[in-house]
């Protein structure tokens, strides 16, 4: 069974192969291109499961295979792959979600003229994410990190002819690139301080205190900046809600398993670096906490089904970051655990939302309503997703959310705990507001007749629904299997060294309060949108600007536009004039001066022998004077 | 096969096409085109042989040719013996110039294929085109200062006519500007060369024009010490003169305005060559003669070089962001990308130099591809104004895909050559000047901003009805696209192709520059 890990490099290779084949033969393949992508993802999934199983065995150790790639100066950069606990788990999540999304897309994208292109991008996306996950060094991570970014750019802009899609794609690329630059600098600094890009070398250097503390903090924060961009943390979150301009299956993939997961994964993968710097961990924790509550407060008022889900993703990612920011095994495991459960229930929610949009061709939840009768299956799985994300036992979200709050509690981080609870209330409220408005009551608008989606779309939904229910059981307070497994091994050793091997779990009251808070949110949504006994604008009426603030997403986009985009344009226009009239002008002056001297010469050429004689004499005098000063004709002596 | 004459063969192999063309009457346009294109295959094959036979393990010049050429009498000594100045015909390549020759051959052939769209005065066009090739090969292949100058000038004349005759509406002004600026650069370069040649005999060394011998003399501690005593600052002045001379070519702000007009007005294949190779002569001159002959002076100038590099990067990027003409966007983009070359040099370490040379080669391929794509679009819609374009991805999906890929390569997407060069240049720079490096890195964001703006406005968005019937790329256009893209990806995935030959050569340069062993 151990040998299977040696072949883990094949896992990303199959989607790559599918990509190459679809690029080459896409036009001939037409809709059969889907099978190529699906089969490749399926093989990768099976391999991932075997790899995971091999790593999960008692006594299994990490496997690493480096290959020489490029010599730079005195050092050699290696490429290769590594299998450890964290990425073995990630491989399974990524391949599984990708596989389900690709199956679902066969139904959703049916009839699209760029069908093969879609599968081409999906395969490349899967390949890039898998490559990122199995990278053994930061340079390789960065390479795939950027590829993941470009794939999401391509998919968000899939409907390239729509101006909104074009803008969203551009925004996704540029905003995440701002974060990437942080990562870029962080990697370079680490290289100069440790002499390597390799995780293990860097971790060893940190363990041996070879880095100055400020450098550790700086490098960790810079790497986190990269994660902020990719995982849509404040203040670089703005691209993520816009990214829903892509086809809905893409949103599922981006929000669940690939793009945004990369940031959280990166922080987890470089966790020893963060452990060495309490400051950096605090940055992670507070940025995460702020994002969690900030995005949740925006989610309360959005009208677009995908936008609500998008802000819930941002909020949940904040949750994960907050957990990672709580030092210690509990935080580390809670963050990655929530990454896993979230991948399943968020993919489920997005695909179910896609099923709704596919049926009634609108995304405005105030035009929906009563869809439960027409689309019972979609409604059912959507409800499961909502219960999971709201953290109602025994759904998966309950266990991972409980783990996060428990980690904050046992680390005595009461501020984080309160933020977590408030965000949980918001989440429960807006998710059920979404559910009730969409599926309960009567239809309020829209012309298209609702119908249940075909089996090719509903089967992936059912599988994800099952996972959203049961995925939490891998790490219950009674049997923390995942915890024990993830916290063993190399990263676990660093954690134990940094914070002692505590595995304290939360007091019971935290769990009870968390569930109560969520139920309160659900109840309020029920009263407002089903019973209608509480007016939805109850809180808003006295302070309308608060609603506007939330609905307009705190005007962050507008502020960025005014502070960055427009000044850049002004600067450009100013420099354009500067370039044309000052820089080029000076040289034009030089040229006209040359012309002037030429004209002077022309004046001398007037046929008067006296003038010529004078010039000759002048030249001779200058020559003689010159040689007198120099002391003779230079002749090699 | 005997490789002893390979460099001369490569350099003068375009003569074959010139000779054949001379005997073909003007009216056989099709035949002239075929000869013009096929003629570039000979240097291409020969330079691939050069690549294949290059020995990675050697740190000295390879394929050296040394033939006595001219003896110039320069004076008589005390005993009546005649002193002569021997000028010899020297050729030779190392790990820096060999890849540039291969680049020249590849881009040359691709530009010749792209010349398919040239419609008038074909015979003169291809004659000048091949003459230009000779000049470029010569610049990279020669080891003699005089020959370097001659080849350098040899590129100016055909380029002047190619721009001035076959260019777009304001071609003549562009050509004149090109000639004036480059003329000034050449004049400065010539003065510096004369001073260098005149200096060497001052230390009782034999007069020489060989670059290798000059380097040995100029970098010797005795010479440096003596110059410091006699004329402090003189060597630095010489370095600065060379820096400006090649800086105009690269171009370095504020000497860049000439190349904007050239990029807009010159015919597409000539821009491919200009941006792909001619600008690179500046980078090559900087490392071979500027840094190579005056390492100590260059080292003391490194901080300024880094500042100028950052200025180039940011200035070019901000200006590219507001241009309305695709060609102008790419012209400013070239300025921005050449800033990375400067940064790599400024790092003054192996990694930085490696990055600078990678960037030189990589940008050669990428900018050639980008301008090829602009040419392909121009052929169909007769405009390169961004606000007149849009939605081309619908009618020209393949060409639009390649354009987007080229833009991605240009903004440094991993998996393609631009990333390696950018990464290495910054990696090197951070080793010595992390603060300046941090400012320069902002260019990475701005590059994405202006390239996506330009490319997405061209190919994304709703398509105007008048573009309904545009044909996608034709086979003859696809060929250079695929070849150039192939090399871009090859360098991105397997950079050892370029870095292996570089290693030994850099080991001979870097220790002298830094004065220490690494």
Model description:
- The complex is a heterodimer of chains A (637) and B (518).
- Chain A is mainly alpha-helical.
- Chain A is built from 27 helices and two strands.
- In chain A, strand 1 (63-72) and strand 2 (75-83) form a beta hairpin.
- In chain A, helix 2 packs antiparallel against helix 5 (115-134) and helix 11 (248-256) packs antiparallel against helix 16.
- The longest helix of chain A has 49 residues, at 556-604.
- Chain A is globular.
- Chain A starts with a helix and ends in a 7-residue tail after the last helix.
- Chain B has 518 residues and is mainly α.
- Chain B has one domain.
- Helices cover 73% and strands 5% of the residues of chain B.
- Chain B contains 23 helices and two strands.
- Chain B has helices at 6-12, 14-22, 29-39, 41-53, 97-114, 122-141, 145-166, 171-199, 211-218, 221-230, 234-249, 257-265, 268-293, 295-300, 302-322, 326-347, 350-381, 392-395, 397-410, 417-432, 434-459, 475-493, 496-514, and strands spanning 62-76, 82-93.
- Chain B has a two-stranded antiparallel sheet.
- In chain B, a hairpin with a 5-residue loop joins strand 1 and strand 2 (82-93).
- In chain B, helix 1 (6-12) runs antiparallel to helix 6 and helix 19 runs antiparallel to helix 21 (434-459).
- Chain B is globular.
- Chains A and B meet through strand 1, helix 6, helix 7 and helix 26 of A and strand 1, helix 8, helix 15, helix 17 and helix 20 of B.
How do the helices and strands line up, and which of them pair or pack?
The complex is a heterodimer of chains A (637) and B (518).
Chain A: H1 3-6, H2 10-29, H3 33-56, E1 63-72, E2 75-83, H4 85-108, H5 115-134, H6 138-156, H7 163-194, H8 199-207, H9 213-230, H10 239-242, H11 248-256, H12 259-269, H13 271-275, H14 278-299, H15 305-325, H16 329-360, H17 371-374, H18 376-390, H19 396-410, H20 414-439, H21 455-470, H22 481-486, H23 489-499, H24 508-531, H25 544-551, H26 556-604, H27 609-630
Antiparallel strand pairs in A: 1-2
Chain B: H1 6-12, H2 14-22, H3 29-39, H4 41-53, E1 62-76, E2 82-93, H5 97-114, H6 122-141, H7 145-166, H8 171-199, H9 211-218, H10 221-230, H11 234-249, H12 257-265, H13 268-293, H14 295-300, H15 302-322, H16 326-347, H17 350-381, H18 392-395, H19 397-410, H20 417-432, H21 434-459, H22 475-493, H23 496-514
């Amino acid at each position: 069974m151990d040998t299977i890990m040696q072949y883990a490099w094949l896992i990303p290779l199959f989607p790559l192969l599918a990509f190459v084949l679809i690029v080459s033969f896409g036009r001939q393949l037409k809709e059969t291109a889907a099978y190529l992508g699906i089969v490749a993802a399926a093989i990768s999934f099976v391999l991932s499961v075997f790899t995971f199983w091999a790593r999960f065995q008692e006594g299994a150790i990490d496997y690493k295979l480096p290959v020489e790639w490029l010599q730079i100066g005195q050092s050699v950069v290696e490429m290769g792959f590594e299998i450890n606990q964290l990425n073995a788990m990630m491989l399974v999540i990524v391949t599984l979600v990708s596989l389900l999304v690709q199956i679902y897309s066969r139904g959703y994208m049916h009839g699209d003229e760029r069908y093969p292109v879609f599968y081409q991008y999906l395969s490349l996306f899967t390949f890039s994410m898998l490559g990122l996950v199995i990278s053994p060094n930061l340079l390789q991570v960065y390479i795939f990190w950027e590829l993941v970014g470009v794939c999401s750019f391509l998919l968000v802009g899939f409907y390239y002819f729509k101006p909104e899609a074009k803008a969203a794609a551009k925004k996704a690329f540029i905003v995440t690139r701002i974060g990437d630059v942080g990562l870029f600098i962080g990697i370079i600094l680490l290289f100069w301080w440790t002499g390597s890009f390799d995780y293990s070398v860097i971790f060893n250097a940190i363990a041996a205190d070879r880095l100055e503390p400020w450098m550790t903090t700086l490098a960790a924060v810079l790497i986190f900046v990269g994660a902020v961009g990719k995982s849509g943390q404040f203040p670089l979150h703005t691209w993520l809600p816009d990214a829903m301009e892509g086809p809905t299956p893409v949103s599922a993939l981006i929000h669940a398993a690939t793009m945004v997961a990369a940031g959280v994964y990166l922080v987890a993968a470089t966790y020893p670096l963060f452990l060495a710097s309490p400051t950096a961990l605090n940055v992670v924790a507070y940025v995460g906490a702020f994002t969690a509550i900030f995005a949740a407060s925006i989610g309360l008022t959005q009208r677009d089904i995908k936008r609500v889900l998008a802000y819930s993703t941002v909020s949940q990612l904040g949750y994960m970051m907050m957990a990672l920011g709580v030092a210690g095994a509990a935080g580390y495991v809670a963050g990655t655990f929530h990454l896993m459960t979230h991948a399943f229930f968020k993919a489920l929610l997005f695909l179910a939302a896609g099923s709704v949009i596919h049926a009634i061709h609108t995304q405005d939840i105030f035009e929906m309503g009563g869809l439960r009768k027409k689309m019972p299956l979609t409604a059912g799985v959507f409800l499961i997703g909502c219960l999971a994300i709201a953290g109602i036992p025994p759904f998966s979200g309950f266990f991972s959310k409980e783990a996060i709050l428990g980690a904050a509690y046992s680390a005595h981080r009461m501020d984080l705990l309160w933020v977590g609870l408030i965000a949980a209330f918001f989440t429960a409220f807006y998710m059920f507001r979404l559910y009730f408005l969409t599926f309960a009551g009567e239809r309020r608008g829209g012309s298209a007749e609702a119908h249940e989606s075909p089996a090719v779309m509903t089967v992936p939904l059912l599988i994800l629904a099952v996972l959203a229910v049961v995925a939490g059981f891998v790490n219950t307070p009674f049997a923390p299997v995942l915890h024990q497994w993830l916290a063993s091994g190399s990263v676990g050793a660093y954690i134990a060294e940094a914070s002692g091997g505590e595995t304290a779990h939360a007091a019971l009251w935290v769990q009870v309060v968390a569930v109560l808070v969520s139920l309160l949110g659900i109840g309020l949504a029920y009263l407002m949108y089903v019973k209608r006994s509480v007016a939805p604008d109850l809180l808003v009426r006295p302070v309308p600007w608060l609603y506007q603030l939330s609905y307009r997403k705190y005007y962050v986009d507008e502020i960025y536009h005014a502070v960055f985009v427009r000044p850049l344009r002004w600067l450009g226009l100013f420099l354009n004039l500067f370039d044309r009239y000052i820089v080029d002008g000076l040289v034009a002056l030089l040229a006209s001066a040359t012309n002037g001297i030429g004209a002077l010469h022309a004046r001398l050429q007037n046929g008067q022998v006296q003038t010529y004689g004078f010039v000759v004499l002048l030249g001779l005098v200058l020559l003689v004077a010159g040689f007198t000063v120099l002391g003779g004709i230079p002749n090699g002596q | 096969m005997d490789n002893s004459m390979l460099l001369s063969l490569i350099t003068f192999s375009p003569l074959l096409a010139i000779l054949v063309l001379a005997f073909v009457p003007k009216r056989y346009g099709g035949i002239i085109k075929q000869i013009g294109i096929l003629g570039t295959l000979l240097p291409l094959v020969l330079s691939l042989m050069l690549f294949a036979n290059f020995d990675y393990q050697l740190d000295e010049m390879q394929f050296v040719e040394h033939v006595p050429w001219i003896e110039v009498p320069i004076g008589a000594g005390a005993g009546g013996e005649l002193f002569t100045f021997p000028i010899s015909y020297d050729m030779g390549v190392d790990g820096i110039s060999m890849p540039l020759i291969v680049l020249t051959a590849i881009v040359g052939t691709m530009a010749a294929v792209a010349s398919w769209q040239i419609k008038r005065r074909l015979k003169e066009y291809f004659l000048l085109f091949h003459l230009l090739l000779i000049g470029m090969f010569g610049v990279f292949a020669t080891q003699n200062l005089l020959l370097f100058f001659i080849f350098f000038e040899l590129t100016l004349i055909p380029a002047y006519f190619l721009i001035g005759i076959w260019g777009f509406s304001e071609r003549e002004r562009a050509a004149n500007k090109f000639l004036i600026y480059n003329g000034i650069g050449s004049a400065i370069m010539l003065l510096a060369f004369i001073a260098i040649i005149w200096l060497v005999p001052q230390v009782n060394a034999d007069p020489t024009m060989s670059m290798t011998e000059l380097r040995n003399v100029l970098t010797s501690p005795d010479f440096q010490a003596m110059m410091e005593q006699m004329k402090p600052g003189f060597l630095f002045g010489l370095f600065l003169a060379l820096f400006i001379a090649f800086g105009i070519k690269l171009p370095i702000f504020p000497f860049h305005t000439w190349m904007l007009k050239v990029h807009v007005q010159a015919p597409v294949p000539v821009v491919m060559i200009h941006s792909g190779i001619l600008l690179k002569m500046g980078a090559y001159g900087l490392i071979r003669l500027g840094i190579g002959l005056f390492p100590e002076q260059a080292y003391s100038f490194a901080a300024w070089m880094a500042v100028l590099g950052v200025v180039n990067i940011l200035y070019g990027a901000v200006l590219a962001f507001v241009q309305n003409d695709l060609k102008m966007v790419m012209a400013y983009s070239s300025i921005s990308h050449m800033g990375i070359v400067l940064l790599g040099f400024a790092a003054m370490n192996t990694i930085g130099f490696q990055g600078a040379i990678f960037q030189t080669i990589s940008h050669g391929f990428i900018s050639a591809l980008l301008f090829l794509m602009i040419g392909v679009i121009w052929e169909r819609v007769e405009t390169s104004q961004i606000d007149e374009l849009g939605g081309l991805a619908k009618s020209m999906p393949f060409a639009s895909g390649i354009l987007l890929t080229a833009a991605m390569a240009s903004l440094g997407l991993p998996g393609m050559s631009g990333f390696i060069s950018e990464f290495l240049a910054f990696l090197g720079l951070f080793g010595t000047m992390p603060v300046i490096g941090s400012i320069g890195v902002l260019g990475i964001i701005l590059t994405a901003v202006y390239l996506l703006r330009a490319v997405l406005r061209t190919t994304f968005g709703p398509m105007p009805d008048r573009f309904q019937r545009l044909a996608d790329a034709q086979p003859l256009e696809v060929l250079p696209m695929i070849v150039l893209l192939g090399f871009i990806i090859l360098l991105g995935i397997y950079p050892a192709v370029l870095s292996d030959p570089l290693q030994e050569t850099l080991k001979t340069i870097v220790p002298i520059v830094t004065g220490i062993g690494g």
